[in-house]
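Schema walk-through. Below, the input block comes first and the output block second. Nothing else is stored per chain. Lengths vary across the set, and this one has 443 residues.
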Amino acid sequence: MSEIVVADVSIGERSIEYTVEYSRDLRRFFDRSTFSVSYDVDVSEVPLGVATIPVLAQVCPVAWATDSTVVVEAVDRQFLDSLDAVRDTLSRMYPAFIDGGAIRAERITEHRHEPGSFEGTAQLFSGGVDSLATYVRHREADPALIAIQGWVIGVDEDDRWERAMGHVDRFAKREDCPTHGVTADISDFLDHTMLNVHYKHHTDGGWYSGVGHGIGLLGVCAPLAYSQGYGVVHMGSTHWDGFELESITWPGRGSPWGSHPDIDDNVRWAGTRGHHDAFDITRQDKLELLADYARETGSPFVIRTCTYDDAGGNCNRCEKCVRTATGLLVAGVDPNDFGYRVDEEWYDYAIERFETNDWALDEHVRYYWEDIQAHLPVEEPPDYDGTEEFLAWLADNDFADNVERSTQPAWVKLLRVGARNAPYEFYEYLYPVYDRLRPKPYN
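--- output ---
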């Protein structure tokens, strides 16, 4: 059986570095043989069984997909049990490729702690709709806001990260709550593109979004949570109960996704549990929750949803910006108070994008727009030119007509299949060609 070996774990004052070895047939799924995580607190006293969790959270899903064994010196018993539970969930989600894999540890460790020593609360936080809604729901517990660099923002994108953390810090100052910045080279460690070549056609999204990010991001938080005494780490939901796409379903549990109650709620380690938050409300419900909170406090705040704006704000032109601003309109507040720029020209721009089908809407995004429609009519819409006409268009538009079920050219399919099945030596030359030439959607 193929193996992924965590050969060395080096625990520093504020960082942990791992050396990983893997069988030759698994080389295509790894970009490097080292993985590192850095924190803004001292993690040097974190026990080895907990310190290994960040890297195990990245490699175990790969092992399950390739029927490989992960070898490690020590692992926390609660997390080891979590791995079994998460693997069982993913195998039910994706029976076509999650079917096997194991972990072999030299030592299974127990970590006892004093009663009350893990009473703190934390949450993953990006400043977007999902994480803001989770904060509002749990604000009485004064959660620490954890932002992670290394996935959406790469470890080498320091300027973007500084702007993103500035946004997090401003919101934290407004709410008087603590923050943490964590850097983990998630996007550089695994070869996510090759994982997508093999498995994306089974998922609604790429490898990390569809399979790995629930356990992966929570696992990165383990040494931080242990050192700071956080007994729960919340992770805001992307989907909601009843979110079921036609193209990919998990009977009775919605559409498969890498973060789900059956994943996140099963992630545990010494003193800490993960929690998948707000699965009981839709995305538009979350926007209405945020609108109500802004009205309650008398102070709106920036919602940061855009991945295209290099200045760290919202571009106001991409589909996600337009969708979020529209949701705020339907929630009865002015999007201009929340970090968006909406005027009569913006309304015309948004309608034209749909009428010309400039945005390659997929079934997933269609679901979000139909959720917004389901919350119409607006009781008290913002009163400025164009709002009434835009909301009338929104009520009547059939978003099913905007869904582009695009097919890749035959040569791209052939190249993709070739890369997926090629020997490693050939893949080294073939895959970069595929990666350069494959179609790249705007959003």
